[in-house]
Design brief:
Layout: H1 8-23, H2 41-44, H3 49-58, H4 60-63, H5 78-92, H6 103-118, H7 125-130, H8 138-158
């Protein structure tokens, strides 16, 4: 049986299956640091264990140099979508490189965090669908935003800037 003798619908299915298999050969680079960053926000500012836990389970996958990858992240096109998503998240805020930000930028990033988390815009809904531990309670949102406010105030005060 030749490919030409297969009905058009079956040809399309076979072509799509072949494309899916070929896509599996494409492997985007994973976002996994080999060691903790000396520039991580928690290395420079007092971060209570409860806040570190919230950051780890709800923020660091997209906003740090270390992502926890679920098994399905090895399947294309999910792997490429996740790589793009993580790169976009790190462009906006990278907790692993936070100490490299200028004081003005660091204060602004924390101001954005306070707003986004406070209004329940972060973590993203698509992330919360797959990560139940990233669904913040009101108390957890308050804990995280109060911490961010404290760090932001310290950054401003240390740099002679008034709120």
């Amino acid at each position: 049986m030749s490919f030409a003798s297969v009905k058009p619908f079956k040809r399309i299915l076979l072509a799509l299956a072949a494309l899916f298999v070929a896509l599996q050969l494409v492997r985007p680079e994973k976002n996994i640091a080999t060691e903790p960053s000396a520039n991580d926000i928690a290395a420079h500012y007092s971060t209570p264990p409860a806040v570190k836990q919230l950051l780890a389970v709800a923020c660091y996958d997209c906003h740090s140099d270390t992502t926890r990858y679920p098994r399905y992240a090895n399947i294309q096109p999910v792997a490429s979508w996740m790589a793009w998503h993580v790169n976009e998240g790190k462009k906006h805020l990278n907790f692993s490189q936070f100490a490299t930000y200028t004081p003005k930028r660091a204060a602004h990033k924390l101001e954005e965090l306070i707003e986004e988390v406070g209004e329940d815009k972060m973590p993203l809904g698509s992330y919360k669908l797959m990560h139940a531990d990233a669904r913040f309670t009101a108390e957890q949102r308050t804990l995280l935003t109060d911490w961010a406010k404290t760090v932001r105030q310290r950054i401003l005060a240390d740099n002679g800037q008034a709120e």
